[in-house]
Amino acid sequence: MGGVNPYIQKAKVRLPEQPFTITFRYKEVENGKLVERERVFTVDPKAIPYAHTGEPGSILDIGFGAGLEIDHACGGVCACATCHVIVREGGESCSPKTEDEEDQLDQARGLELDSRLSCQCVPDGTRNLVVEIPYWNRNLVKETD
Asked: Average pLDDT for residues 79-96, to the nearest whole number?
């Protein structure tokens, strides 16, 4: 779904020039039990954008490239906080938070110092990242044919 929010300040981003990895940590239900999962994804700078949602090269965009669905009710345009993630490692290689992102994060559940909106957080590829997707931010509902 992607789009542009004309009411926000454009984030200052530097796209990666070399491959790097993002380790996504998340929980899901398996056989009625909550289990912890981890998916390591190698980001290919030439493949950006992966899904045309959020900022190109954002954690949200890369998550879709890795086959993970991070909830994003606003379509990835920094108009909600549903794509909230926590950057556990490598956060210094990410684009700085804009005032608009900080305003939206104020509404996020489980806010931490390393919290980011995955639609706005763009890593520059100089560090590998470890990103935690909070359980409540995973869209576990799937439509089937």
From this structure: 95
The region, left, alpha or beta by phi > 0 then psi within -120 to 50, assigned to residue 62 is alpha
Count: domains in the chain: 1
Residues sharing a CB contact under 8 Å with residue 2, sequence separation 6 or more, in sequence order: 51, 52, 53, 54, 75, 76, 77
What distance in Å separates the CA atoms of residue 22 and residue 67, rounded to the nearest whole number?
13
Residue 75 belongs to what domain range? 20-130
C-alpha angle 119-125-20 in degrees, rounded to nearest 5 = 100
pLDDT at 1 (0 to 100): 45
What CATH number should be reported for the domain holding residue 27? 3.10.20.30
